Amino acid sequence: MAQKTFESALRRLEQITTELEEGELPLEKSLKKFDEGISLVSFCSEKLEEARLRVDLLLKKDNNLTTVPFEDEVDDGGGA
Fold it and tell me: Any idea where this protein resides (predicted)?
């Protein structure tokens, strides 16, 4: 069996989401798909955290860790 990657897990999660949104699965199958989706979300979250830690290491300068947080929202210049 091939090793699971972030990209393959994300594709599978998108497929599960589509299947659940269609609403045509019996309850028991929907619950199994939902459970699989939760596992995939956890896997993807772990992979993203690993990537964040690697980026932090790459940003290390002069023995000081300098991190730049990703912005939650892109500032489009519009005011609220």
Answer: Cytoplasm
